[in-house]
Design a protein that fits this description.
By secondary structure, the chain is mostly helical. It is 72% helix and 0% strand. This is F-box domain-containing protein.
Length: 90
């Protein structure tokens, strides 16, 4: 008998926070059970929000700012940000 999904999710969230987004792909390749868990929108949203909390002090921002930026972005938006970042940080 395996671990309950909620326990696996807690463990995987910690792995993603420690290892980054690449951990989602790695976990998804282990087995179908892991893949099904880490590819759920709710899992990815939780991992993203927890990561965002770990890198940002939200108490210094206004409610309207948090409403605008405290949300998960689509992959296309991330690719755009990565391109901008690579141009700025050359």
């Amino acid at each position: 008998m395996g671990l309950p999904s909620s326990v696996l999710e807690d463990i995987f969230i910690d792995v993603v926070l420690q290892e980054g987004d690449k951990a989602i792909l790695t976990l998804a390749l282990v087995c179908t059970c892991f893949r099904d868990l880490v590819t759920q929108e709710a899992f990815r949203r939780q991992a993203y929000i927890l990561w965002l909390d770990s890198v940002t002090n939200w108490t210094v921002f206004s409610t309207s700012y948090k409403a605008e930026y405290y949300k998960m972005y689509r992959q296309a938006m991330w690719r755009h940000f990565q391109k901008l970042h690579s141009r700025i940080c050359r």
